[in-house]
Amino acid sequence: MSNKEVILLLAKKHKTWIDVVSSFGCDKTIAEDIVQEMYIKVLPKIENGLDIIYYDNDINYYYIYKVLKTLFIDLKRKGKNITMINIEDTNYSKLDCDVDYDKAYDKIKAELNTMFWYDRKVFEIINEGESIADFSRNSFIEYFSLYNTYRKVKAKLKKLI
């Protein structure tokens, strides 16, 4: 079976996938979003050779169920940090878009220059993308020392802005 046929077979079961996600306890809108995320995750894998077809030319329901369940659990974990906004109810004139990024950047740079050199350097290295674990291994500085320093500097800069 070709990749295109597999994708079409997967898409034919769209309503089934929405019903599966709805059975987890979320409304149809969220279920639709999760199913769309499932397509985004599964389609590249199918194109790279993942076989989700049983011997009788049917979709491997268990595999799709596990993907949907994982996406649902991830959404619930992140849900505490997500704020849902209804687009129809939004008054765009109330949105605060008057942020002067250059001024904020200058404030942060000035504050960093007043900090102790160790705090500044730890913040800069981690903020540039190096993981705290790698930094700890390479520098032989305790992980929690680096973590606490980074967290402290980040909190101070957030208060500044």
Strand content: under 5%
User: pLDDT under 50 segments (min length 5)?
Assistant: none
Mean pLDDT level: 85
Q: What Rg do the Cα atoms give?
A: 23 Å
Distance between the termini: 56 Å
Category from helices, strands and their pairing: mainly alpha
Number of helices: 8
How many domains? The number is: 2
Characterization of this structure:
This protein is mostly helical. It has two domains: 3-82, no CATH class; 101-160. Helix content is 67%, strand content 0%. Helix 3 (28-47) packs across helix 4 (61-78). The longest helix has 20 residues, at 28-47. It starts with a helix and ends with a helix. The mean pLDDT is 85.
Short synopsis of the structure:
With 161 residues, this protein is mainly alpha-helical.
Topology (elements, then pairings):
Blueprint: H1 3-12, H2 14-22, H3 28-47, H4 61-78, H5 101-114, H6 117-127, H7 132-139, H8 143-160
Helix pairs in contact: 2-3, 3-4, 6-8
Which characteristics define this entry?
single chain, 161 residues, mainly alpha, 2 domains, elongated
